[in-house]
Fold this sequence. Notes:
Blueprint: H1 7-22, E1 25-27, E2 40-42, E3 48-49, H2 53-57, H3 64-80, H4 93-96
Antiparallel strand pairs: 1-2, 2-3
Amino acid sequence: MATTSPWPDVLQAIYADMVMRAAHLEPLEPYRHHNRPWASRCMRCGRIVRPRYRQIRDGWGGCRHCAAVARNAAARAARTNNSAPPARTAPTEEDTTC
């Protein structure tokens, strides 16, 4: 009877921890599953947040409180400068060549 090695789970947990830390989140509990909330402390503001690992892995961001502060600061800067966000432009030929 073949047994499964625990190493894939260990490596997945180590990688998930690295991804969370790269998003400025310090995990407060062991990794369980990509779709379960994972208690973490934001390394910027110190708040406890519970994002899912898959959200962080897929680039959704980390701390919603810090994201709200950044959005509000950007909106305030746009209002004080009386400027609209930069307009999107069509890609040029230089942008599409490899």
